[in-house]
What we know:
The structure holds two protein chains of two kinds. By secondary structure, chain A is an all-alpha fold. In chain A, 79% of the residues lie in helices and 0% in strands.
Amino acid sequence: MMHLTRRISAGETSWEDVELLRDVANQVRGKCLCALGEFSIEAVTTGIQRFEGDFRQSVIAGETELTPMATD
Amino acid sequence: MEGSYLLLRHRDFPGIKDLDEYRRLGGFQAFRRAVTSMKPAEVTEVVKASGLRGRGGAGFPTGVKWSFIDNKAWPHYVVANADESEPGTFKDREIMEGNPFQFLEGVALAAYAIQANAAYIYLRGEFWHIAHQLDQRISELEESGLLGDRLSGTDYSLRIYTHLGAGAYICGEETAMLESLEGKLGQPRLRPPFPPSFGLYGKPTVVNNVETLTNVPLIVERGAEWYRGFGTEKSAGVKIFSLSGCVNKPGNYELPLGTTFRELIYEHGGGIVGGAAIKAIMPAGASSSLIVATEEALDTPMDYESVPNVGAALGSASVIVVDETVSIAWLVDKTIRFFKHESCGKCTPCREAHSG
């Protein structure tokens, strides 16, 4: 998830990575011995669910920025 | 002597960190009375009746936890959780620095209630200076006859010890803390069995947060009914809210449970920096769900029953405020970096999910 969140935050990715991040986070739920593991993904799952626009904006901003690099 | 605070009493009485002043304000009368004239189970009953719930995050009823102690296995232990490693939580530090004897008396009362002769305070490694201060205060209590052997002429003896962690977030989790205290790698245990039946060194153990224990002396001194006069019916008492993020006046605010997010953020916290619009609230530090800061959410009472209605948990009540200038994608990246660093690695899903 760290690599995904870094790429998403930096805008160096596409929406598929956001969906992958959400899927990976959901795989952690219910599979840890302690509450710390269990709650570590709350910000990811609720962030994507409740603030989807922020993730879309990050991805779009990144694609816009990335275009010149891709055509160089 | 009453002031406006129950826990952060050093704000009313700055000298309370000295034993003489603490005793002048009635300190250690509750412990002395308990040891000399109350049965251990009576102390547990008072705490149970007060409605006090664990302030570390889970909100489990404290007196009920004490009553789960297995009386067929001995000895018993009390461990005070002073690891305070959740990002955004900084209340236990203020208690231990400002009002240390009330906390230590709470530890002593919990120990008497479960008849433990040894209690440990597990502090995060960065709190070495606080551990040093507590060691000095524990020595003062021993010199004054308030801790040690055969207290107040009874058969009850109690020693309190401090123990420093080494900077691992996971050691704030109670079973990892017990492993660490035993000198092992700090990783959580499979539960059940739970600590009240199989805790430190495999013996019945109560693990309570610093703030939880600091409530206990006043509950025993003034009674369960008095304590229930604060907060809500199911979430009794006061809570220290550690307010941080995009607010004008971050800090610790001791308020009754059931105070709204709006009152905390706008009345006590002075509103959002630069007058920006509020966007999200993390009510329980980095391990918190993100609440959308709607009008309805802002008017939600901060207690154990109401916060789930807006899709989160009260947890340790370390309220991180996020304003409109912050990208949630950036915030999520920050929290995942933290958890990647702190995952203890025992459970494969947590270890691999955060690293990849």
